[in-house]
Structure formats: C-alpha cells, structure tokens
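Minutes, project check-in

Agenda point 3 was the complex the collaborators sent over. CS summarized: two entities, 455 residues total, and the question is how they sit relative to each other. Sequences were read into the notes so everyone works from the same version.
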Amino acid sequence: MNKVVQSADEAVADISSGSTIMLGGFGLCGIPENLIAALVRRRITGLHTISNNMGVDGFGMGLMLEAGMIASHVGSYVGENRRLETLVLKGELDLTLIPQGTLAERIRAGGAGIPAFYVPTGLGTVVAEGKETRKIGDRTYVLEQALHADVALIKAWKGDRLGNLVYRKTARNFNPAMATAAELTIAEVEELVEPGELDPDHIVTPGIYVNRILVGASYRKPIESRFIQSGGAA
Amino acid sequence: MTGKERIARRIAREFKDGYYVNLGIGLPTMIAGFIPAGIDVMFQSENGMLGVGGPPTEEQADPDLINAGKQPVTEIPGCSFFASEESFAMIRGGHMDMSILGAMQVDEKGNLANWTIPGKMVKGMGGAMDLVAGARRVIVAMEHQTKDGGSRILKECTLPLTGQSVVHDIVTELCWIHVTPEGLVLTEVAEGLDAAEVQARTEAKLIVSPELRVMTVAAAV
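CS then shared the predicted structure for the full assembly.
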C-alpha cells in the first residue's frame, strides 16, 4: 500500500469544477498551503468550499477567492478577508455562516455515519431559522445535518505512506474531522516517515481516512496577527 | 487605569482556583494578565488548546501555536492540544466554568448580540454561539457605551442575536450587572458613581440591589 503522490499538482489533477471541497485550518494555522496553490494553478471554478475561515487577502483561500474559483462558502468566521466581505455584500458569493462548534460537529457526523444531531447552539437566532427543534428534558435543541464533501484537503505535521497522520500544536484544528468526511482525502505533510516510525498510540488520523499523501514543497506559515494584547502570562 | 483594564481586573477577581475558562477575542484576552496570586486557572482556546500561556517573544513565536484571535501564544506546563470537534464538545458539554465575551448589545432578558451588523459587517459568529450555549457561566465584558455615547445595554437587542437568555453577568467600566429572571440587577458601581448616574447611561431598566457596593478592582499583580 502506497498513497504517496509526488507533488501537489499531481494530487489535485482530477478535482473538477463544481466540486465541494473541505479545507482544513484555523485562520492561516494548519492550512494545506501547497494543495491550495496547486488548485489555484488549475483554475477550476464554481467550487463549494467548507472551511472555518477564508484565508486573508493574498494568502490561503484568499488566493482561490481572488482567482474567482469559489461560488459558495460555508464557514464560521471570515472577518480577516475584506475581499470576501465586499463580494458577499454585493451578492456575488453565497456565504453561509454557522457556529464553529456546529461546523466541526457537522463534519465529524459526516464522517461518522450520523446524518443529523441536536445541539443547543443557536436556538432563538438566525442559525435556527427553518430548522427542526425539539424539547428534550427541560431544554430545546436545534437539529443540525451532517456535512460531506467530494474532496478534503488537509494539512498534518508528519505522515507515512499508509496515510497515518500526526499534527502539531494548534495546527490540528479542523483537519482530523475533515479527513473523515470526504470521498477523496488528500493530506499534505511536512515530513514523510516510514510506517512504524509514528507511535501507534499517538496517531490522530488513522490511514484508512486518507487517499493520497504528499510532502509539501515549502511552507510559508505566516502568523496572521502579531498584535499582542497587554497583560502577562496566564 | 483605562476603562478596559478596570473591567479586566474586576473580572479576574471572579476566578477560583481550578477554573477552566474561555476568554473571547479583544478585551477579555486582557483578563489573563490580572489573575490573583495563588489562583490557578486553565485557559481554553477554542481552536484546540487547554493551558494557554502568555504571549511569546518575537523569536519564540510559532505559527503552529496560536489562540482563537490568531495571535501567537505559549504553552504552560500541563497544556494539551485537541481537534476542533473535541474543543467544542468540551464547550457545548458544559465543561467550561466560565466564558467571557465582548458584546455589541445585551438586553434585559440576557440576550446577546455580538456577531453581525446586517448589510454592513460580514464577519461571522466563530465560536461565540457555542460558548454562550454551553458554558456554565457567561460574562459579557464590554465598555458601557458605544463610542458616540449610545447605550449597549438595551431593553431589547436590535441586532441579530448570538444567544437567547444566555448572559449571566455584564461587566463594564461603570458597573457589575447580574441578569435575573426579574431583570437586570445592579450589584456594583465604580468608585465615585451612584446608581442614578449608571442608569442615566443605560437604556435598559436597572434594578438596584439592596446590597449595592463599590466595584473594587484587583491590585496590580
């Protein structure tokens, strides 16, 4: 078994326009930068993206947006992307904002064979509009549906040719859940190791979820916000 | 001392040893700097970390180690990392002792609005709706009035809600307000102010607590 592909371009060569694509990352942390760059080189269009954020102007998913590749987006926070805000206010991009925890759980459910589930989140807000609600015990909950995608593009720290993955610090975020919720999961890693080198007790994403794995050619990893609030250590 | 610092210092006095707390972006983040001596608090960041430490130096900053405001942070001994679905399971599941958030509006029923201005601002709710639905105690930390002197504590929120009847306490540079089924109870006012002066700067009706006291802020750590 060998899931290794040699380049990001090879990895995304068969992704077609109109696909639904999940992209891992929180802000610019733990995003599949090489796979995004390869997608942008392909210039496919009409994509439906699912990702917590939308990059920033000039990096990450912001590059896909600037290339006019995205038709609709599902996420929880897009405040760092001015271009997106402008497109949405002009009605040129279909944006669905949902609570971050609900987003994560809908993706998890998608990969776990759970079609829908109840949460207290968003009750009495626009998020619950048009959704079934149900009183269980003394609290009312909102029914949320699972999310699936054609493709998940994820970023891990280290992986092996079987697709086993480990992550580093807060760069884990949405990547493990997304790995489980798509027909085709492509993982880019900083380092490819031999099977057996990753401690089986530490593997976060077992290889069963990963179809293709590649080593990213390079990583920029910009830090989005250098601004540090006053106040010392916790 | 600025108004924001006064708010941060006052809220820090509410922490008890062993608390797990999520601090929102902006003003609430400042609270971490004012924890009283002898109190151990574990800060959670919803992007997947428990045990968030203070800011790193420029050289220490690690792009794989950020908080929910996308700012670089450090690890404290005993910290842990986890994925987003796990992070929100602990939030939604009622494991956070306290969630402290900023607000654009709060009202007499404890409704909170802090995520969008229709037709004007497209940002998103991030984790705020999950936090207010799941934390054991939700504290709003904000400046009492808008920059042009308008009230943020209203009879009824006019902006789209983040959560319905979710706020337990409101802390501003002027006062502490406790949200009850009967309405907003003014429990503390800043030194040099009285209840009438706070009410004059507040649209919502305030019920003055019989035990009204002066809001003390912690001494510098």
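Noted in discussion: Chain A is about 20% helix and 25% strand.
Follow-up: revisit at the next meeting once the mutant set is ready.
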